């Protein structure tokens, strides 16, 4: 259905002609008129002999009049003023239940006589109370398969709550794929088999939370808050078939759980599959199947005081889609509308007002319409004057520069308020016309019951659904085939669309729990989150005289170069967020030529004086949802948005600190986080090789994966500065970092509302440039005094040793507990994991503890995204990544609706193939069967890219792969192994020497960089990375680019 309140141009003339049922003259707003609710015929007031004084009281008075078209008597009716008092206002419940079916989207258009020569000037009087809660109960039979009709239904009816059954969704389908961005989605998908599933979608401006109950049936509960009324608990239920004997028992159990403590208001909707009821008198039809089950359900409704409100058929001649409530007096209207499956939709209005949260409209800068040239001319002389004048402090210097930039932005960059975009841009005039005709046929078919009209309606329904799918697909195709103006790549809109559809929104903050209450106010939620983030900070310690510790510093003095600053400005990513100062990266990049010199002067002054502008110490914190219950504040992590100019300064210092640490070999060799020529892949490769070598020698390996609690937020500032001094960082840099960390403040921003500002007493800002490097310096002494092997990727820590040295591993964990206490950090013992790698039938099962708490033993361990099994045979990992890749292929099939092979191929290469190849160097010792399973994903992708149906068995997939130039994944893994080996050879020869040795014998027919491969006891070890790849490396020709240092 479509929203036809604004008729198409080619239909506007016809749609405004309304004839009086008595005199056959036009009815318009110049004359008082009434409408029959049964046949939708309009009458002049005079033609029905209704006194003019009663006109304004229609619907509340006892005026009687008769409709000459359908011969029905009316005691009250709907006047135009009443009809438009709210979107779908009705005051007579009995007339609503007996009136003819009217489609919501055509209601305003059909029932509003507008003067032909001018637009409607009628303005409804303000409502005396909030508009009612609008609910639709819809059987979908696959939402994904009916995306066009689903979107159209949602945008037409504009419900507050959607109760959906037979969603046919599973974990592979993100809620964002439903394109219902203005709704909070709650789902209970069927875990086994196809079909089934229930869902409740609540308008995101209404406060709602899911209520969990212990129930095996497809029943889902959601609570919504109301104004002036107790909370309403809404349930979505699906009873799969008419003979289901357990559903009523499950529903009773669920209601019993919900009915504890104080009384509650219930609205229970869904597809109940009780065709035997005649709901006009709640009796059973003759010949009803399973009468006992019907009676049991009726008794259940009576026991809980529930009234079933739907009396009209919703599928064929049966009423299957029901709405039961203990608020029957609050139900203002119940209507049956055209559905998106073979079930009709139930639409109802409840006379309660939900608790709406007002959305804040923001003003946005229109950078594409800015006069950048004029802005540069305006700023150049003024910035030069600021730069030449003496500035007593970096803070005042920065304020002078910032004020000039903000002043110029007001003059040369236009802005506008954000507005809501059309959520159905693919519906054109022709489709509007078809939808309108379909709805008119539905109304006539329901009124007259003609088989001919029913056939015509079904024909139009199928045509409309087909057209909706086609138009939506063409719209998405146009979206995908737009090219970037600069590089000819797929447009940013494409990747924004894909990213949004793939995952649930992590930046949105739902209602939060405070004690026993659910808080919805944006301001209060911001305060709750700010208090949560502050609660993890550690207490500050007294300052230390770092100048004495840095007298013999090896780090040279830093001189900031204007060319380096200009390069930083010119390479800023313009799509990054704006900091608290309101100056975006786009502005700084466009003004790089005029800002480079004054910012260089400012940066050097700030570093020399060891003083940081106050603006750079303020962070706007964006809460990012992690996992778990969304209403718990501890399930969000803070990401700090700081000033972009501060990030440029941080980048300069970070580069110096990294260069100093690497040149002096300060960082631990097994630390792979945030370092050049290191990374997850190398960390995993060395870890798995150590375990495989032990297995080859018949030794078992005990591994502990340790989990830090809020590691970045617990960094003690004074202890960090002390460690920097001990590592030889010069006093100039330490003084700047000390001032950078001292007096920092943060505020949490939720939906444009800000919390109060709070002091940050510990931690390095997550989201800052310098933060990760400072953390590496802070955690660098963790492996000291540890005899077992320790591997780090930032705070992701793994400690391991052979089972023979079990006591040594336990002592090392005790030593780590001491380091943890001294560094004000905290391990989370119950989130740590302990595992033994062994090929024995009965491996060692000794326990190990941290803080006198036993670390849980695991059958598999996931470390840095790779699942490790006890025998390192990769079955679990291959299964995980192929399932994920196939799921992503399904996402592409459902959402990348285009015939362009280029677009689909790019989507495969950037969304699917990386899943199959992540850290492949570490696990490429797979079996032939496992390799075939990986290749099958790419073969399936090739058929999808080329548009080959599953049923087409004649087309050769091998030829498709050749046509698309997609080499086998095994070939790509081999090339990747050689490239990583080359990286070790040129950049980390000391690590390479731990696993293989350089060959002393050079062959005249081979290159000079030969390696000796040791003897092994197992095939699995022979296929491990270093040994297998060394043999392939030895066979490379002299001309191979991998032998050159430039290749890495």
Plain-language structure description:
- It is a single chain.
- By secondary structure, this protein is an alpha+beta fold.
- The chain contains 32 helices and 39 strands.
- It has a six-stranded mixed beta sheet. A six-stranded mixed beta sheet has the order 9-10-12-13-17-16, with no helix packed on it.
- Strand 28 (745-750) and strand 29 (753-754) form a beta hairpin.
Supply the key terms:
32 helices; single chain; 1048 residues
**How many E-type strands?**
39
Helicity, as a percent range? 25-40%
The gyration radius over C-alpha positions equals: 35 Å
Oligomer: single chain
The number of helices is 32
Strand content: 15-25%
Shape descriptor reads globular
What is the averaged pLDDT score? 82
Which segments are poorly predicted (pLDDT under 50) over 5 or more consecutive residues? 1-17, 52-63, 75-128, 484-488
* Sheet/helix structural class: alpha+beta
* CA-CA gap between termini: 58 Å
Strand order of the largest sheet: 7-8-6-5-19-18
Task: Give the biggest beta sheet.
Answer: 6 strands, mixed
């Amino acid at each position: 259905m479509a929203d036809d309140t604004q008729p198409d141009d080619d239909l506007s003339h016809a749609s405004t002609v309304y004839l009086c049922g008595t005199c056959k003259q036009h009815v318009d707003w110049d004359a008082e008129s009434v409408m029959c609710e049964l046949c939708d015929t309009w009458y002049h007031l005079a033609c029905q002999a209704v006194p003019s004084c009663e006109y304004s009281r229609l619907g509340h008075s006892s005026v009687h009049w008769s409709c000459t078209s359908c011969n029905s008597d009316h005691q009250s009716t709907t006047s135009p003023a009443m009809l438009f008092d709210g979107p779908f206002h009705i005051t007579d419940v009995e007339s609503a239940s007996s009136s003819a079916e009217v489609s919501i989207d055509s209601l305003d258009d059909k029932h509003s006589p507008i003067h032909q020569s001018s637009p409607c000037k009628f303005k409804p009087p303000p409502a005396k109370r909030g508009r009612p809660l609008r609910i639709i109960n819809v059987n979908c039979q696959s939402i994904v398969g009916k995306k066009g009709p689903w979107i159209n239904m949602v945008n037409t009816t504009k419900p507050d709550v959607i109760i959906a059954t037979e969603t046919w969704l599973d974990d592979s389908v993100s809620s964002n794929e439903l394109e219902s961005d203005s709704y909070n989605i709650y789902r209970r998908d069927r875990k086994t088999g196809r079909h089934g599933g229930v869902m409740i979608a609540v308008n995101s401006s209404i406060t709602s939370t899911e209520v969990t109950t212990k129930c095996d049936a497809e029943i889902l509960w959601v609570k919504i808050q109301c104004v002036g009324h107790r909370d309403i608990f809404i349930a979505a239920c699906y009873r799969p078939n008419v003979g289901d004997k357990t559903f009523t028992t499950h529903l009773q159990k669920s209601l019993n759980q919900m009915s504890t403590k104080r009384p509650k208001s219930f609205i229970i909707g869904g597809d109940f599959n009780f065709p035997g009821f005649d709901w006009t008198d709640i009796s059973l039809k003759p010949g009803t199947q399973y009468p006992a089950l019907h009676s049991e359900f009726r008794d259940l409704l009576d026991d809980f005081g529930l009234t079933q409100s739907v009396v009209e058929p919703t599928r064929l001649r049966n009423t299957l889609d029901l709405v039961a409530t203990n608020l029957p007096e609050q139900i203002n209207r119940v209507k049956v509308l055209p559905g998106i499956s073979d079930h009709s939709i139930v639409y109802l209005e409840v006379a309660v007002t939900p608790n709406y949260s007002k959305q804040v409209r923001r003003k946005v800068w229109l950078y594409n319409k800015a006069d950048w040239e004029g802005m540069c001319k305006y700023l150049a002389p003024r910035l030069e004057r600021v730069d030449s004048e003496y500035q007593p402090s970096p803070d005042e210097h920065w304020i002078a520069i910032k004020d000039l930039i903000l002043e110029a932005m007001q003059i040369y960059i236009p802005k506008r308020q954000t507005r809501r975009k059309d959520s159905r841009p693919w519906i054109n005039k022709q489709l509007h016309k078809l939808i309108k005709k379909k709805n008119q046929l539905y109304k006539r078919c329901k009124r007259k019951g003609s088989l001919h009209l029913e056939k015509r309606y079904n024909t139009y329904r199928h045509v409309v659904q087909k057209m909706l799918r086609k138009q939506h697909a063409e719209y998405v195709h146009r979206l995908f085939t737009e090219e970037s103006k600069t590089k000819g790549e797929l447009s940013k809109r494409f990747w924004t669309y894909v990213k949004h559809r793939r995952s649930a929104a992590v930046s949105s903050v739902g209602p939060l729990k405070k004690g026993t209450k659910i808080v919805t106010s944006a301001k209060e939620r911001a305060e709750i989150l700010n208090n949560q983030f502050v609660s993890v900070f550690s207490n500050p310690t007294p300052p230390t005289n770092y100048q004495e510790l840095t007298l013999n510093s090896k780090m040279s003095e830093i001189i900031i170069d204007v060319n380096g600053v200009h390069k930083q400005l010119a390479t800023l990513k313009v799509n990054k967020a704006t900091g608290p100062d309101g100056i975006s990266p786009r502005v700084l990049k466009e003004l790089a030529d005029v800002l480079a010199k004054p910012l260089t002067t400012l940066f050097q002054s700030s570093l020399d004086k060891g003083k940081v502008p106050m603006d750079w110490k303020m962070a706007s914190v964006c809460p990012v949802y992690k996992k778990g219950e969304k209403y718990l504040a501890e399930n969000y992590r803070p990401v700090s948005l700081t000033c972009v100019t501060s990030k440029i300064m941080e980048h300069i210092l970070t580069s110096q600190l990294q260069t100093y640490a690497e040149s002096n070999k300060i960082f631990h060799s097994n630390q792979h986080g945030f370092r050049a020529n290191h990374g997850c892949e190398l960390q995993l490769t060395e870890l798995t090789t150590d375990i495989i070598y032990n297995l080859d020698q018949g030794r078992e390996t005990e591994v502990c994966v340790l989990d830090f609690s809020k590691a970045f937020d617990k960094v003690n500032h004074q202890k960090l500065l002390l460690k920097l001094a001990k590592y030889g960082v010069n006093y100039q840099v330490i003084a700047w970092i000390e001032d950078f960390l001292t007096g920092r403040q943060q505020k949490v921003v939720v939906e444009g509302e800000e919390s109060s500002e709070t002091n940050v007493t510990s931690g390095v800002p997550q989201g800052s440039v310098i933060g990760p490097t400072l953390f590496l310096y802070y955690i660098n002494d963790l492996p000291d005094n540890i005899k077992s092997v320790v591997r780090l990727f930032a705070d992701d820590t793994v400690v391991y040793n052979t089972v023979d040295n079990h006591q040594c591993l336990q002592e090392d964990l005790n030593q780590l507990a001491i380091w943890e206490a001294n560094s004000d950090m905290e391990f989370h013992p119950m989130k740590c994991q302990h595992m033994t790698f062994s090929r024995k039938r009965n491996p060692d099962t000794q326990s190990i503890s941290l803080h006198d708490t036993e670390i849980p033993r695991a059958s598999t361990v996931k470390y840095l995204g790779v699942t490790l099994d006890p025998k390192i045979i990769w079955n679990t990992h291959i299964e995980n990544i192929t399932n994920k890749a196939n799921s992503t292929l399904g996402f592409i099939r459902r959402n990348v609706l285009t015939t362009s092979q280029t677009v689909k191929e790019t989507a495969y290469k950037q969304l699917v193939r990386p899943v199959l190849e992540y850290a492949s160097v570490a696990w490429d010792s797979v079996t032939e069967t496992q390799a075939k399973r990986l290749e099958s994903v790419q073969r399936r992708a090739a058929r999808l890219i080329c548009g080959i149906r599953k049923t087409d068995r004649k087309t050769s997939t091998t030829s498709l792969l050749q046509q698309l130039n997609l080499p086998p994944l095994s070939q790509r893994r081999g090339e990747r192994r050689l490239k990583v080996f080359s990286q070790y050879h040129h950049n980390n020869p000391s690590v390479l020497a731990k696993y293989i040795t350089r060959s002393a014998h050079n062959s005249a027919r081979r290159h000079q960089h030969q390696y000796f491969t040791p003897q092994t006891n197992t095939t699995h070890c022979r296929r491990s990375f270093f040994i297998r790849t060394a043999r392939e490396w030895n066979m490379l020709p002299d001309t191979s680019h991998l032998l050159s240092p430039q290749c890495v």
